[in-house]
């Protein structure tokens, strides 16, 4: 049972951490290239067409695959399967933690489906629908976390209380994004909170179920839980800064020719048609919409 609960903390935390890391890389590159007319269409057309099906909704498909794998893990890790109510008299609900985990993973799959539908199925991308779907998933996660803790020790209560704090702050940021029309400031805070939630979930699995010393934590060690959490704040902040620094270095050292090509293409397209998006093939329209969305959010943040 301890190994199963360890996996229920470690593997979702691993996914959330890498998801936040991926989003941090995307946002950092967009921030750095904000003043540069580099677009995704500057890549060779044959390369774009070969990778088009995977790049269109990479985040959405990642959510669907990860949510499905985690769902299979929860369902099949039990010897008797996921039983909701036993056959005893009087009947009782079974595996409350597992059913809460399963609910969160199902919402993750639905969030991925919304992303894929918005980017690939709808005739026009609906960003508000994507953000609302993610916010709804975090609302559900926070609601389940509030009833998830079965207080067996002060250490467990403190670990989950700090996790609830991170999820609550993330809920506020995602809610603000629905009305703030997106900004790099909110995106950076959101990515930082995703990194915090992922790394803390992974560490909490070791604290509660696989302590490095091999002995369970005592209630007297509760102060070290908060201390380690503060270390996570510092490490994830440095990680976010490192991603931005590496992206800046890569952009300055390895992309000068790309910037020149991009500027020439933009001037040519604007002079020949007056509408940049009008000359793009339909198969490439989604990539341009994504880039235009990020650039418009950047300019709105700059004006603010």
From TrEMBL:
Ranges annotated as spanning the membrane: 12-32, 53-76, 134-151, 157-180, 192-210, 222-244
Main localization (coarse): membrane
Membrane topology of the entry: Multi-pass membrane protein
Keywords: Membrane, Transmembrane, Transmembrane helix
A cellular component annotation (GO) from this entry: membrane
Location within or outside the cell: Membrane
InterPro entries: DUF716
Pfam families recorded: DUF716
Source organism, top-level taxon: Eukaryota
PANTHER family: TRANSMEMBRANE EPIDIDYMAL FAMILY MEMBER 3, TRANSMEMBRANE EPIDIDYMAL PROTEIN 1
Family indicated by similarity: Belongs to the TMEM45 family.
Protein name per the record: Transmembrane epididymal protein 1A
